[in-house]
Amino acid sequence: MHVAFICESNMTWLVKDKKFYKTLIALALPISLQNLITFLVNFADNVMVGSLGEVDIAAVHMSRQMASVIQFFMNGIGTVVLVLGAQYFGKKNYDAIKRIIFNGFRVTVIAGILYSALNIIFARQILSLLTNGNDLVVTAGIPYLQITGLSFFFFCISQHFVYSLRAVQNTKLGMRLAFITLVVNCTLNYLLIFGKFGFPVLGITGAAIATLVARIIECIVTVIYVFRFEKDLKLKLSDIRLKSKILAGDMFRHGIPIMLGEIVWSINTLYHSFIIGRYNEDIMSAFSITIMMSNLIYVWAAGLASSVGIITGKTVGEGKYNLMKQYAKTVQVLFVIVGILSGLLVFFLKMPFISLYNVTDATAATANTLMNVLAIVMAGTCYQMVGLAGLVKSGGDTAFVTINDSIHVFLIIIPSAFIAYKLGAPVWAVFLCLKCDQLLKCIVAVIKINRFKWMKKLVRDDVKQEDKAQ
Questions:
Q1: What is the pLDDT of residues 243-289, one digit of tens each?
Q2: What is each CA distance from 29 to 75, 94, 166, 180, 340, in whole angstroms?
Q3: Longest C-alpha distance within the chain, in Å?
Q4: What pLDDT is recorded for position 135?
Q5: d(CA 466, CA 462)
């Protein structure tokens, strides 16, 4: 259901209501801490594995690209639940939220099983494709991908409930789970990678086992918390049977564009690995280090962006469109500042960050160059990410973001990076082609956001009638 809007000329660029900023920070802090802890888990893996050499760094990085794919899928399912759930939260319809959660849960379980099986059975073929048949990297990466592949099922369940609770502004579960994962994963990494306190020296296989155990514990804690201690929705195991044909139809209709968008982004991520995998181990390692830096800086920006999405969904669900327009203007100002600060952080922290890795001078030099490019594009990433995902997608215009991503990935990123690689362009130029959409999307975001035609009310009043009939 589309609603037309006209922007008031007297609208200021910054919200004066302190409650908005308090809510933004209150929601963002747990998510940012969760992102930071998750980063530390992966960073600990990278640094510990990094001491084993470039081949092992490359093997772990390439294997983790499959984890990125399932992360994108869960982002899709989670975003569907979050966008619809947040709007029903604005209407205080908790029964509809429960039905949305468990409609999504059934899809999550099936996807988790299938994806885990895919990575376990076809680990060699997957890594061979990503690395252009680099035997050293493939051989080292197979056990890592097979073991971590099993963990994807448990990860899916945990992430589904993390997203589900965000719909009712409960953002603390993800932070707590991330902390548990950090402690378990880092402890087992130390014991199993290096063979401490009588444990065998397993190298990157030990890192994979640590990840699997951490994900299993994380999943168990999630299920116990959600069904025993969560106070807002008061979910019960019997709620798993809850269904709604009306809401399932809405999830399908609004979810298809979101899921297609995540598929597009998964293809983009795998294409990054496909291109970088054409190079030697030094460049692959430099790319891995650069991505870790990107993830570190992304921590706080992503936390703020997620909180914007939660506020957007609730505000639109409440029908407060003029207030949402004011929020949108304020968010744009904030994230221009966040983007500039993020780029500066990359630039000034790059050398200390690279020095944490035991790599060759050639790898360090390449990583330094790639981070210069990252510092530039990071400013654009922060603005367009919150604008298109936190505002436009969360506001109900789920199709636009997918169409925009598809155009940039298939018509700009993939062709330009392929041409640059084939012409023998410097690695930094190829990397810039892979990241150029982060700057180009800013133009789209500015125009789209400030036309204010993306706010769409997705909630229904007839859900209650269906609920009573069941």
A1: 778 888 888 887 788 888 888 888 888 888 788 878 887 888 888 88
A2: 19, 25, 13, 17, 20
A3: 71
A4: 80
A5: 7
Low-confidence residues of the chain, pLDDT below 70?
1-12, 50-51, 53, 133, 461-470
User: What's the pTM value of the predicted model, to 2 decimals?
Assistant: 0.74
User: Please, are residues 185 and 44 in contact by the beta-carbon 8 Å criterion?
Assistant: yes
What is the structure's pLDDT at 229? 86
- Contact predicate 149/68, CB 8 Å: no
| φ, ψ dihedrals at 457, nearest 5° | -80, 120
CB contact set of 424 (below 8 Å; sequence gap of 6+): none
SS (H, E, C) 210-269: HHHHHHHHHHHHHHHHHHHHCCCCCCCHHHHHCCCHHHHHHHHHHHHHHHHHHHHHHHHH
Cβ–Cβ under 8 Å, residues 171 and 30: yes
Cα separation of 22 and 19, whole Å?
A: 5
CA separation, residue 19 to residues 15, 26, 258 (Å)? 10, 10, 30
Q: How far apart are CA 373 and CA 115, in angstroms?
A: 33
Taking the C-alpha atoms of residue 459 and residue 444, their distance in angstroms, rounded to an integer, is 27
Q: Which residue has the tokens 């800086």?
A: 297
User: Is residue 245 within 8 Å of residue 96, measured between CB atoms?
Assistant: no
Q: What is the rounded CA–CA span in Å between residue 324 and residue 169?
A: 17
Alpha-carbon gap, residue 349 to 371, rounded angstroms: 10
Residue with tokens 């215009």: 397
Distance of CA 369 to the CA centre of its chain: 25
145 contact partners, CB below 8 Å, separation of at least 6: 63, 66, 119, 123, 126, 127, 208
- Residue type at position 9: S
* Residue partners of 265: CB distance under 8 A and separation at least 6: 72, 405, 409
N-to-C CA span, the chain: 26
